[in-house]
Amino acid sequence: MLTAHTIKIIQSLDKKKYRQKYNLFLVEGNKIIKELPNSDYEITELYSTDPDTLNLENSKVHKIQPAELKKISFLQTPKDSIAVCRIPKEEKIIETSIQIILDGIQDPGNLGTIIRLADWFGIEQIICSNDTVDVYNPKVIQATMGSFLRVNVVYTNLESYLTNYKYPVFGTDMDGKNIYKTEFPAKFSIIFGNEGNGIRPSTEELISQMITIPRFGKNMSTESLNVSMSAGIILGQIFSNK
Amino acid sequence: MLTAHTIKIIQSLDKKKYRQKYNLFLVEGNKIIKELPNSDYEITELYSTDPDTLNLENSKVHKIQPAELKKISFLQTPKDSIAVCRIPKEEKIIETSIQIILDGIQDPGNLGTIIRLADWFGIEQIICSNDTVDVYNPKVIQATMGSFLRVNVVYTNLESYLTNYKYPVFGTDMDGKNIYKTEFPAKFSIIFGNEGNGIRPSTEELISQMITIPRFGKNMSTESLNVSMSAGIILGQIFSNK
């Protein structure tokens, strides 16, 4: 049985303030939870409507009722289990060949999708501006479909970081160089900007080359592509020569 | 003022059955509504909280209160105006160079995103299996961001259609030919399948070549990409040589 206190703490984990206070975040669904023991993430508590299906050697698993799961789940249709995990103490920037930089992405679905894309293309690291949506937001974790386990997501001051970064930095906007005519080096960063405002001017100053997906449709009313879709198409093009 | 009868009819338009009964569908938001007079779509009624902002020479515009708009909107955060439009009587298959075929896509967001991609890449037609989600579903219309105005979406029996189609047909799955090593002819169709089950066997039999986006990440747990993201990456690659 879940106590009112436990329910209250878990429900609070949709807010960054409380995730930071308790150093905890949630992972929902057996499929992703089963990958946790092979990762660096520590499970502090496990709640499941059917612990047998989890098949985890973990003394912390609590059997709960579907009505209780509904209270602590952030999904419209709750799955089978919820794991409460510890947020790692420190995020370290690693050396990578190709990395993604996000400048003020706000939508949890976009961040989750971009993490999933990074995982697909084997990109090991995403560096985020401090105002980018938090990776431990339950909607982000869910949208990654488990890919957050395999991509290093780090938050930092982009201006200082880029000032000291020694490799080419590509930015994406509406009137950069055609991606199909751009050659990408072995080691570089690619920046995607905020959904509404794009890359902010202070970041843009530190970019070596702006690039663009050309629009083949002739109608000027056509909306520009969503940031995560742009990221997918651009990464697809970058990896066409790998 | 909206009558209870009008509210009831408009609310029923989220169901295909009622859209077909009344031959009507909804378009929400000034931005897209303003494009309607330049399209083949006929507006039957217009409801707006601020008709002046619409700036349309249309006698059918009714001023309504925000509370009324909320009742007839399918959006979580209703916009400014709603147009009730007539569903065109007949959909005709046109001759195109590159076209998309959808085999049982169920998610309105995926269909809307694929229509938006088609518009971006200048693809004029999407041919859907009869069981693909209805283009006039309010969630599809919204996800297209107006692109439904510029892409011909037709529903048909794919088996009969493909049997008589004379050009190459590419299909997408997890173990086809690498898209980066595939040459695309001047005229062809590309098929994307259902979110869970992919392309059905009876359609697959009529495909000339299966293609795949190679996964560069080494981890086998990585989820395959969502169908609309795959469509974006594959179209991005197809157009890299255009």
Keywords:
10 strands; Alpha/beta knot; homodimer; 242 residues; six-stranded parallel beta sheet; alpha/beta; four-stranded mixed beta sheet; elongated; 10 helices; 2 domains; 60s Ribosomal Protein L30, Chain: A
Overview in brief:
2 copies of one chain form a homodimer. With 242 residues, chain A is α/β, with parallel strands linked by helices. In chain A, 30% of the residues lie in helices and 23% in strands.
Q: H/E element string of chain A?
A: HHEHEHEHEEHEHEHEEHEH
Main sheet makeup of chain A = 6 strands, parallel
Tell me the number of helical segments of chain A per DSSP (H or I, 4 or more residues long). Answer: 10
Oligomer: homodimer
Distance between the termini of chain A: 52 Å
Number of strands of chain A: 10
Coarse morphology of chain A: elongated
Summed up, the domain count of chain A is 2
Biggest contact: A-B, 38 and 38 residues
Low-confidence stretches of chain A: none
